[in-house]
Specification:
By secondary structure, this protein is mostly helical. It has helices spanning about 1-20, 25-35, 40-65, 70-90, 95-120, 135-150, 155-165, 170-195, 195-200, 205-225, 230-250. The model is unreliable at about 120-130 (pLDDT under 50).
């Protein structure tokens, strides 16, 4: 029966992601940890599910010509390396410490999501080209590490950063970041599989979350632009902040 509950979590998180353009990992990780799942188990389950959802998303954006190939390569490779290291880091830290760590990181990302939706304007792109060629490498690595070690965060960190620091069209930023996330999800999953004996992975959690996320992906794609994204984003951000704040206080 547990896998059914996890399937609902995956479906709900994917619907949120479809409306906001981000948030699958952030939402599902928070709900899984709140339900008592271990930090590494939550992150492993999220990234296993994202291998399916991000692949479908990346292919869709590729066909729609929403991808900048140069930025994709410069983001995806360091992002994958960061995700692999982040998965190993989370697998090695103490269980009680990992719960506090992931809740703290999710709390920070919740505030980031809240800020992004409160100050969101129509003109999001600052027409300034990146001068430092290592910027994308650093951004990809940081986003990948935070995403794997925190169970989510690639979208909330990478997407708004690119929107505010480059002259790239918003549709290509979103498409490129979504496509690069597939590499991040695969790399994180490999990192968790290597440490399979350490994290006591529950396959009902992984399977249920993946099933729910994949089934909801087509519906989520149709919801883009139809739901009040800003209000929904603020609501989800506040919920994430409250749930993780309570966990930190209890710890």
């Amino acid at each position: 029966m547990n896998w059914i509950a996890f399937a609902f979590i995956g479906a709900f998180a994917q619907l949120i992601d479809g409306a906001l353009g981000m948030g699958f990992g952030l939402t599902s990780s928070t709900l899984l940890v709140t339900m008592g799942a271990g930090a590494a188990v939550a992150s492993a389950a999220v990234h296993a599910a994202e291998m399916g959802t991000t692949l479908a998303s990346g292919v869709s954006h590729w066909h729609a010509e929403n991808i900048d190939k140069k930025i994709l390569i410069r983001l995806a490779i360091p992002g994958g390396i960061g995700a692999f290291l982040g998965a190993n880091f989370l697998s090695f830290i103490d269980l009680s410490t990992s719960k506090i760590f992931i809740s703290t990181l999710l709390l920070f990302l919740g505030f980031l999501l809240l800020y992004r939706n409160i100050v969101k304007t129509e003109a999001q792109v600052n027409m300034v080209e990146i001068k430092n060629p290592n910027f994308l490498t650093f951004l990809g690595f940081t986003g990948g590490f935070v995403d794997a070690s925190g169970g989510g965060g690639w979208g909330p960190l990478v997407t708004p950063t690119l929107l505010s620091t480059t002259a790239t069209q918003p549709r290509k930023v979103i498409g490129t970041v979504s496509a690069a996330e597939f590499v991040v999800a695969v790399s994180a999953s490999i990192g968790f599989l290597i440490n399979f004996n350490r994290i006591d992975l529950d396959w009902s959690t992984v399977g249920g979350l993946a099933l729910g996320g994949v089934l909801a992906a087509p519906i989520a794609a149709r919801l883009v632009g139809r739901l009040p994204a800003r209000q929904l984003g603020i609501f989800i951000a506040v919920a994430i902040i409250l749930l993780n704040g309570i966990r930190i206080i209890q710890a």
